Every structure is written in C-alpha cells, then in structure tokens.
Amino acid sequence: MYNKLILFSFLLGVVPHVIRADLGVEYALMAPTQIFFRENHDYIRAGPLSWCYGSSTSNQPIEAWWSLLRKYKSQFWIELFTVMEKAGEWNYFDHIDRECLIFIFMPLLIKELNEFRLEWNTHRIRYDAKSRCPSGCPDNNYFLPELNNTQNFGFNVNEEDYIYVYENYCNDPSLGEYITLQRENELNNIVKFILDNIGNSKVNITIITIARKIYYILRTYLHQV
C-alpha cells in the first residue's frame, strides 16, 4: 500500500492537504511521507500538521465502504481460495502455487475491483443536510470541485522529494511486478498448450470454474517438470 501511495502521489502530482488516520501499523511509513511531501508548502497545515491521528470509531464512512467491498466482491474470493486451500489445490508456502494463482486469478481480481471502483465512483450520492460530505457523483466531485462551490485542496509534490523517497524506500524491482514478463510469456505458452489439449483453445478463462480447472492443470504440470 505504501508503494502505491508514492506512485499515485507522483502520477497525480498532488498529495492531500491533510490526512486523518487511526494508529494502525500500516501508516508507519505513510505518515512521515505525507509530512515530508508537505513540509515546504506555504499553508497553515503544512509539515507535521498535514497528518493527524484519531480514533477508528470516527472512520465510519470508509469502514462502511470496506464492508460493501467485502460483501459484493472480496468475500466470494476469500471463500473460493479457502475452499481451494482445504482441497489441497493451493499452498501459500509453495512458490509454484503462488505463481500459478497470481497468473490465473489476478486478471479476474483486477477486473472485479475495477468494476466496483467504476460503479462506486459514478454512482450519485444523495443530498443530506446533516452531512458535511458533498452530494453528487464522486468522480465529478473530485475532478470538478467547483460544482460544489469548493476547490482542489491537493498540493503539488516536489519531484526531487518524490525521487528521494522512491529511491530510498520503494526502489525494489520485485515490487513492480508480480511475475516477470519472461515468466508470464512462459506461462502463457503452457496455458495455450493446455487449452489446445483439452479440445478448445478458445475457452473463456474469465469463467471462474474454468479458471480454477486451468489453474489446477497448470500447477500440476509445473510441479512435475
């Protein structure tokens, strides 16, 4: 998550004027990075004031969002992988199993998450007089803040600061890709061979049951070679 924050900060060119979070361990690197990126901005909440801690009981909106994500998307995958693990089809400590699982199922997971993101960011939030949050479409609120008589409170990221943080904390080639391009090509060729041999090279691997079957054949083959 930390590496993604750095990447997105640079791609978007901005960081928030302030981030509020609880005392979770996942923020150990995120907090100093936000403060570092904001330390030279001419604003009342620059530097250390650009990050504040609060109780998790006040995180109801984001907790509700995580609950929706789990209910409509991630719970299915949690149960599927649990069933596969109990059936002996998946072992976390087995490198081949992890590689095959990522290769076959990661595109499906990304597709599911992108669908959920698109649906959420384009749905309309109803006006609520008791809420401080703006109504309307989240994407419109983010990219066109003037629609709600407000402004973009993001602050530009200094490129030198970004490069320093990236090179010192994120410059790990293994973080960039789950599988190397060479290995991906090898697995693609094996999967094509498997599909040809089961009688249909045009099978839709995006169908979960077929993806699971291809995964099982692929891992079995790689364990034997």
UniProtKB/TrEMBL annotation:
Residues making up the signal peptide according to the UniProt record: 1-21
Superkingdom, taxonomy of origin: Eukaryota
Keywords, comma-separated and alphabetical: Signal
Full protein name: Integrase core domain-containing protein
Source organism of the structure: Glomus cerebriforme
Transmembrane spans: none
Pfam families linked: rva_4
The Integrase core domain, residue ranges: 15-130
